[in-house]
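Whiteboard transcription, Tuesday session. T.W. wrote the structure tokens on the left side:
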């Protein structure tokens, strides 16, 4: 309605100006009338379209339409037209010396063990065919080009082999002509890496996106390199809540775009982690979970709103499989839980599955990517992680610690050797059983083959019942007698 009203008002204004011009024309000599009409045409058509086209020079309407033909608008049409406000927003993405450099030169790059992030708070041009970013305005710093692979796992050579480089070019360079111009900054990241695995998608892309861009209040435009349609489809709700603008797919676009600024890369704070002291606005994991509730329209905020305990069991069909799953479900029901068994087909649609998880008060699963869905649980819910042999450190690091930061209760169930299928392959005295750390010393690939890919579980239902009784207690409930 606001857009229709604005267009209507603009049209009415144009009509009024046209009527006034006619009055002037008919009351003047033909020559003067033609001159006035020509001036009016220039005022209405040329001046509103005279803009900066990603450089310090103004261009006229004819040139503008050819070089910067389309101005992007979001759903509400609000961009960042004030350069000072843009500088303020982008300045918050860097710290210390990087912030000083950004203030001085308009360009700064931060590098750490996990990721590289470069920020430009002055106009840039981006060639979508080559993913070359032209930042030739920078003065006072060495004219060195930068190469950034915009994915938050820099030290992992395998992951980064799936991530295309972005070149940031500085110095005396011939600039390509703008074909599109935008009034919000570009936000460049890759959907390569380990996409397809929910843990890695949240860990290396979704949470870093929130960390980096939430403070820009949706006034940015994503450019997604290594564009992965399944990823973008799966996380459409999240992407649309971080940006009011349609995603640009470089390979399918192939044009030169001009932006008033740019951020290349994503900040990373650790496994499923947010360090609120390093985030503009001080967001925490609780803030991120609130953002998820808004994005997916999740109704249940706290388990106190639920009448009966509902347990969701993450069922794995290939590795770390519960071989006696039916017996586990029978025991869970006997404790008074309504049980939902989540198999891969149910989890494939994240939009729908987020709603299912949000209706549960307990999640149970063996260590693995499926436990990432615990992010959709209500506050105060309980995550029960079954820890296979050899995976104590990984389980605690990837899900145990983060669960507490999410506002969840946490119960850990460590399997005994007799519950692991590894005991059928190795004797009780073998280092695989007695000393998993020694296997990891042989290399992660060796340990992964044994403990992650080569292990299934037959759970001791009587012993596991104790873990679920503890979970009930954390919910303020008690187990039935017997």
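and on the right, the sequence the group agreed on:
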């Amino acid at each position: 309605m606001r857009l229709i009203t604005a267009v209507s008002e603009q049209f009415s204004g144009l009509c009024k100006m046209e009527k006034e011009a006619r009055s002037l024309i008919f009351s003047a000599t033909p020559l003067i009338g033609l001159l006035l009409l020509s001036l009016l045409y220039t005022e209405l058509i040329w001046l509103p379209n005279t803009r900066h086209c990603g450089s310090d020079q103004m261009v006229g309407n004819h040139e503008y339409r050819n070089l910067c033909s389309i101005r992007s608008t979001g759903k509400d049409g609000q961009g960042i037209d004030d350069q000072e406000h843009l500088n303020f927003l982008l300045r918050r993405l860097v710290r210390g010396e990087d912030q000083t450099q950004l203030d001085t030169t308009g360009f700064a790059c931060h590098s750490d063990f996990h990721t590289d992030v470069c920020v430009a708070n002055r106009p840039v041009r981006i060639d979508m065919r080559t993913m070359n970013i032209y930042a030739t305005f920078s003065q006072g710093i060495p004219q060195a080009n930068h190469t950034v692979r915009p994915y938050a796992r820099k030290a992992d050579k395998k992951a980064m082999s799936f991530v295309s480089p972005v070149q940031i070019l500085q110095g005396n360079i011939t600039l390509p002509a703008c074909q599109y111009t935008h009034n919000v900054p570009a936000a460049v990241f890759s959907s390569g890496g380990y996409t397809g695995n929910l843990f890695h998608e949240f860990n290396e892309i979704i949470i870093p996106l929130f960390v980096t861009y939430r403070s820009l209040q949706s006034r940015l435009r994503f450019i997604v390199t290594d564009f992965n349609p399944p990823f973008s489809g799966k996380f459409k709700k999240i992407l649309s809540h971080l940006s009011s603008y349609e995603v640009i797919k470089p390979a399918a676009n192939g044009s030169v775009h001009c932006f008033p600024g740019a951020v290349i890369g994503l900040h990373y704070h650790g496994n499923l982690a947010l360090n609120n002291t390093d985030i503009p606005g001080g967001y925490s994991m609780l803030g991120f979970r609130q953002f998820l509730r808004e994005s997916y329209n999740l109704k249940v905020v706290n388990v106190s709103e639920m009448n009966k305990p509902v347990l969701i069991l993450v069922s794995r069909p290939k590795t770390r499989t519960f071989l006696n799953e039916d017996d586990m479900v029978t025991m869970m029901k006997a404790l008074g839980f309504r049980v939902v068994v989540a198999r891969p087909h149910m989890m494939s649609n994240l939009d729908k599955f987020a709603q299912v998880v949000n209706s549960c008060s307990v999640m149970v699963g063996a260590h693995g990517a499926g436990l990432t869905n615990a992010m959709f649980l209500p506050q105060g819910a309980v995550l029960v992680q079954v820890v296979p042999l050899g995976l104590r450190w990984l389980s605690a690091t990837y899900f145990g610690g983060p669960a507490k930061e999410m506002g969840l209760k946490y119960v850990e169930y460590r399997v005994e050797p007799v519950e692991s299928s590894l005991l059928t392959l190795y004797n009780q005295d073998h280092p695989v059983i007695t000393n998993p750390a020694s296997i990891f010393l042989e290399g992660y690939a060796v340990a992964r083959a044994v403990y992650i890919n080569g292990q299934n579980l037959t759970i001791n239902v009587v012993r596991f019942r104790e873990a679920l009784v503890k979970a009930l207690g954390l919910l303020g409930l008690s187990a039935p007698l017997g």
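Someone added at the bottom: Residues 80-281 form one domain.
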